[in-house]
């Protein structure tokens, strides 16, 4: 299960302070030492850990908390609030275009789950948001990627716009947008090339697509299992092309949680969805508060 180690450690720490009728500064410091250790072990970015501990300590050592009737509970609430804040606070909804179609650019490194997520998102948009999505195969470097999207499209009975591998991604997007208008698609999901690492060509291609049509959302798909690497990838993509949100995949695995807890704070971009499995219905909106509750038990 995801976050297992972190949850276990934090819940252990919390249980020590929970019912205390009196909490001293020393108690809080002790607790913060353990929380710090738990976060580092969960592969949370060091700067993020430091800021988090500072914020919780400042609030928890205040007189109003220590002198309250339930200081233990108060401290736990502060930890939960700050954990929720760290992950973005409120759930961040999809930004739909005022004038359809809404254009969503899907970016990410190969293997992160980008194509799968594109299919899942289209499925969710149809089922939960009553939209009529068009999938666009703009990964011209891997014929297998186009085929994969077409297979997903078939499985979901959703149309996939593809022009093979000989046409440039920008031209594919241009024609796809025309097609979407003709066929009254209100959301266009563009599956862009996934590379093994971030390179100039990839970034240029994304910039060219953006120059043609500014997308309403640019979702970066990252693999939560890769921990701090996922955070670095998010940071680089954001700097190079500007992302509007993150989809964190493979949260059904035994990820330690570092990516989920660091990405928002490092990139200032919200985690919008999480992938919870390989099936087409395994995509959920990300709720920071629910996640914090799950971690703290
Ligand atoms: P891409 O190269 O980024 O397009 O990656 P793919 O979409 O091909 O996904 C790579 C692998 O990750 C595939 O085997 C997917 O089934 C798997 N995958 C994607 N998202 C998830 C997820 O949320 N959970 C799990 N367990 N597997 C996932």
Summarize this structure as a short list of keywords or feature phrases.
cytoplasm, binds guanosine-5'-diphosphate, 297 residues, Signal recognition particle protein, 13% strand, alpha/beta, 8-stranded mixed sheet
Describe the structure.
It is found in: Cytoplasm. It catalyses: GTP + H2O = GDP + phosphate + H(+). Its main location: cytoplasm. GTP binds at residues 108-115, 191-195, 249-252. With 297 residues, the protein is α/β, with parallel strands linked by helices. 53% of the residues lie in helices and 13% in strands. It contains 12 helices and 8 strands. It has helices at residues 4-17, 25-41, 46-60, 63-66, 71-86, 114-129, 143-156, 169-182, 200-212, 228-241, 258-267, 288-296; strands at 102-108, 133-137, 160-161, 187-191, 217-223, 245-249, 271-275, 283-285. The chain has an 8-stranded mixed beta sheet with strand order 3-2-4-1-5-6-7-8, sandwiched between helices. A hairpin with a 7-residue loop joins strand 7 (271-275) and strand 8 (283-285). Helix 2 runs antiparallel to helix 3, helix 3 (46-60) packs antiparallel against helix 5 and helix 8 (169-182) runs parallel beside helix 9. The longest helix is centred in the N-terminal third of the chain and has 17 residues, at 25-41. The chain is elongated and about 70 Å long. The two termini are 14 Å apart. The mean pLDDT is 94. Bound molecules: guanosine-5'-diphosphate. The site of guanosine-5'-diphosphate has 18 residues, from helix 6. Guanosine-5'-diphosphate binds next to helix 6.
């Amino acid at each position: 299960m995801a976050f297992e180690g972190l949850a276990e450690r934090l819940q252990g720490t919390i249980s020590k302070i929970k019912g205390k009728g009196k909490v001293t500064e020393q108690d809080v410091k002790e607790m913060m030492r353990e929380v710090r250790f738990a976060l580092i072990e969960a592969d949370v970015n060091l700067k993020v850990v430091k800021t988090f501990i500072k914020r919780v300590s400042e609030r928890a050592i205040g007189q109003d908390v220590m002198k309250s009737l339930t200081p233990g509970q108060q401290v736990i609430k502060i930890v939960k609030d700050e954990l929720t804040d760290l992950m973005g606070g409120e759930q961040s909804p999809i930004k739909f275009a005022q004038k359809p179609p809404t254009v969503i650019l899907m970016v990410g490194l190969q293997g992160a789950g980008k194509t799968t997520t594109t299919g899942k998102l289209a499925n969710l948009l149809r089922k939960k948001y009553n939209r009529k999505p068009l999938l666009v195969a703009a990964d011209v470097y891997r014929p297998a990627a186009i085929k994969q999207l077409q297979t997903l499209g078939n499985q979901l009975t959703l149309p996939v716009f593809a022009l093979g591998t000989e046409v440039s991604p920008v031209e594919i997007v241009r024609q796809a947008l025309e097609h979407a208008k003709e066929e009254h698609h209100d959301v266009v999901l563009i599956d862009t090339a996934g590379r093994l690492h971030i390179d100039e060509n990839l970034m240029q291609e994304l910039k060219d697509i953006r120059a043609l049509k500014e997308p309403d959302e640019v979702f970066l798909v990252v693999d939560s299992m890769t921990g701090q690497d996922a955070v670095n990838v998010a940071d680089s993509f954001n700097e190079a092309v500007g992302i509007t949100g993150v989809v964190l995949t493979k949260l059904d695995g035994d990820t330690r949680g570092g990516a989920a807890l660091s990405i928002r704070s490092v990139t200032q971009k919200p985690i919008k969805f999480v992938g919870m499995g390989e099936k087409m219905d395994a995509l959920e909106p990300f709720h920071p508060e629910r996640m914090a509750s799950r971690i703290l038990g």
